[in-house]
Amino acid sequence: MASKKTYPQDPNKPPGEACGPDGNLKETEDMDWSEPGVETISSLSTTPAKFTFVHMTGSMAEPATRKRAAPAATTAPDPKRVAVAKDAATASAGPKKAKPKKLTAVDRLVTRTPSSDAIPVTSQPKRAGAASGESVVPRPKKRGATSDVYTVFSVVDPDDESKGHQCDLCRKLKDANPGKYHKLQTIFKGNVTALRSHIARQGMDHYNHYRAACVAQGLTPQERAIPEDEMNRKTGILADEESVTQKTMDDYTTVLPKPTEWTKDGLEDKIIHFILETDQALSVTDRPSFRELLTYQRPKMKDSDIPHRTKITESITERAAVIAAELAKELQDAPGRISLTFDGWTSAIMQAYLAVTAHYITDDWVLRAELLTFDELAGSHSGENTAEVLYDILDKTKIKEKVSLS
């Protein structure tokens, strides 16, 4: 057993815990390892620790002379350690500096110096539930292309634009003189175009305020808000001068007439007009192809809705009688005398006809010529047959005293 080493005592240093009074080093078990506030080994659990011995095999049991293997592939860092590292870096960097607050459109509106004729912020209507003395600034949800509207209008409820917009100018008029303007509308639920149209309809008072407020806030007044008189003045369209008018949609579109309601009487009128205009035979209405054409145009129509030639003949005869009576009345009321002309005609099958025409002047000095009759003669164009037709038509129209033959 080796002897214990001894060291001479240094007179300048008092004996410490590692050295004994004689200056020799103490053994480990003789030293006092306790430290104030620190739990000593003797105070720990005296339960003996259990050790497990593992028999090392394979590469771990190879001699130390073996070359070190290449480092393994880098694995993903532990998320918990990364989070701890970030917290530590943040704590060391100190508190994060707050970014300056970005002014909103409403803040800029409040801080802007209002024009002399602009509505002050304190005159804006109060929102429902706002505290006493609290002024509510219009807070539109959309700014930009619609900003000009809010120089005259304010949102009734900033949290719900569907409740409409209030015209502040109309509101001021109504509050100043409720007896005169008690029916004046102040709340509007239309879109932005409708709000601008309201400004235009109210004339120059609304428009002057609107334009001044837009200029003061750097906005562009919209054409829809300009009153018609002001627009005419700007475009050079004056009532007492001829100029090029502004084109409208009517210059590029054609308005079609509204279709008339279908009726059986209307169908009969159209068929009669077609027969007379194209000189068709009355039997055309009985032809299957003609009736199929009408049915094709209106599938809901029944065959019984289409008149036959017997019905057409009756209708034409009745209408001719009505027209003849109206013409006789007009001839009787003519201010001057009536002249008659007549002409004979023979058909290809040698049938004689005679046409009689009346010529007269109306009260407004318009020369008229109306066909009175086109009759078939019984025989040839003799004087006796012609005279018989003439006297018959004069008797029917009752204009014998007003006629001069020529």
For the residues shown, what is the average pLDDT?
74
Query: What portion of the residues fall into strands of 2 or more residues?
Result: 5-15%
Largest sheet: 4 strands, mixed
Biggest β-sheet: strands ordered side by side in the sheet = 6-5-4-7
Low-confidence stretches: 41-45, 58-65, 105-142
Shape designation? elongated
GO molecular function, one term: zinc ion binding
Region (Disordered): 1-48, 61-143
Biased composition (Polar residues): 112-125
Subcellular location: Nucleus
Give your account of this protein's structure:
- This protein is α+β, with helices and mostly antiparallel strands and 406 residues long.
- Among the domains are: 116 residues, no CATH class; 54 residues, no CATH class; 71 residues.
- Helices cover 31% and strands 10% of the residues.
- The strands form 2 sheets. A 4-stranded mixed β-sheet has the order 6-5-4-7. A 3-stranded antiparallel β-sheet has the order 1-2-3.
- The termini are far apart.
